What we know:
The structure holds two protein chains of two kinds.
Chain A (H helix, E strand, L loop, with lengths): L1 H9 L5 H33 L20 H14 L1 E10 L2 E12 L5 E7 L5 E6 L2 E6 L2 E7 L9 H5 L8 E11 L2 E10 L6 E7 L5 E7 L5 E13 L4 H5 L21 E3 L7 E9 L6 E8 L4 E8 L9 E5 L2 E8 L2 E7 L3 H9 L1 E3 L3
Antiparallel strand pairs in A: 1-2, 1-11, 2-3, 3-4, 4-5, 5-6, 7-8, 8-9, 9-10, 10-11, 12-19, 13-14, 14-15, 15-18, 16-17, 17-18
Chain B lengths: L1 H11 L6 H9 L1 H17 L12 H10 L14 H5 L3 H26 L1 H4 L28 H25 L15 H11 L1
Helix pairs in contact in B: 1-3, 2-3, 6-8
Amino acid sequence: MILNSQTTLKAPHKNKSFQCIRQVTLACLVSLSFSSIGQSVEDDQNTVSVDLPASSHSEPAKAFPSDSAHGWLEKMSYAHSNLNYSISFVLLKPGVDSQPYLWRHGVSVSGVKMEQLNLLNGPGREVVRIDDKVSYFEPNVPPYSLQSRVINGPFPSEFFQQPDEIKDSYDFVMVGRSRVSGRAAQQIRIVSKDKSRFGMNVWLDQETGLMLKMNLVDLNGQLLEQIQVTACHVTEQPDDFFEKIEPAMLPEVLKLRPQTHTKAIWDIAYMPVGMVEVKRDIHRLPITGQSVEYVMLSDGLVDVSIYMRESQNDGINQDILLRHESDTLLTLNQGRLNVTVVGKLPPETANHIASSIHLATN
Amino acid sequence: MTQKIENLSALVDGELHDEQLLDAIKNDAELADKWQSYHLIRDSLRKEMASQINVDIAANVAAALALEPAILAPKKTWRDLPLVGSVVPFAKQGGQMAIAASVAVAMIIGVQQYNQTDVEQPFNSAPALLGIQGGLSPVSLEQTRTLPRADASEQRRVINAYLNDHKQQLRFKAAPAEGESEVELYDTEQSNNVESTSQK
């Protein structure tokens, strides 16, 4: 956040109206920024030295069965939404510089759950969640809030909160114990039931149940994306940072446009096991302004976007398959229909979904 | 033998470390077989199996090699000359060349595109009220096929649009839409790029 506001000052402004908004933002942030300066410096050091002190004063641990993968995931979910912790982790993706993050969570005396995620490199990006309000502070964009209980970040927040949601789509397998980030860890493998989606390996702290490492792997076990925790502190009280936040000063919640409920023109005949349609509308794409019929599929772990429009002679009338970081983008043309599938999916599955789309019969 | 097999099972599970047993496996075909099948069983229990399993091709390869007539002095051809030999025949290279060229084209277009944002402004027809995410990096094209040059720029723009929109949709997924519409969401990725390049 400190970095964020500094950049805001330095950044050359071409747009005056933005400047005003930024000044307001800055005013909101100043109180937060100053207080957290000392804090971030300490955290940086922790990121370097792998330092995981035993969390002796964590809450009296709830008992979870330690002999099943399911029990472990319940323990993880409980830990992530009820403990006060501060975790430093590094996100690794192919072809991209590593990204260090600070992730803090706290439960206030009145039971309000608070969460903060901060990208530590570059101009910074910060997300703060107070109960069901998530505020995003990002460079070059006025800050805004969304009404939501999950942070949209580099890890699957929904999975941490409700791992049960994905049990129809994935098998959980206990693999074994190993040492991760200097701690004893239990490895759990998460594999899609129909082998249609990427798998995940998570290593959970034996004592607290917090995530220590997370690998996204393709169907042949090749690593696609990795989160490696470098420091993890569990404390009795929530971090001081959360006290400094004044909920009233956070940006206002955005009112999103209501979905345009349309009669479905296109039918998706194939969906991977456990995937459901969570959203359908018609909207315009950024950059090009094209209007597309949009469908989002989700299984609670992976979200897939499907775009459908009429084929036009505008440069994307060929079939395309490419990988952007761990996202697959596939465009298929079937007669009049141009389908694009984007998401963390194996190309075969994307192809299967795209080629199953046909005109709705009624 | 039973004892050995039991020990072998323990060894595969990582519960035992026994040099003697390792030697025994090396010299005993039956134990070596067991060793392999135990690993296969373990992998499938842990769901570590590759999507395609190649069960023991080593034996087949060994058999094929044994049948192969021994060539004592291979005839020299021009390809064995030190310099010529290292040159891949041009025809063979074709596929790789095409891919490399298309990536290079894409990269150059990427840079040009950043500097040309003014030209593209009309597409953001409404005032950019809100950008969604800050750091979408330029698409690294692992292109599976070559693109005609003229289309590549437009195609790249469309691909970027899809990737951007996908990220936006993920962020707004959890937020419920409300009755009134006050804010229209437009992406300011283009202006981000301008700023980030000017900062460099």
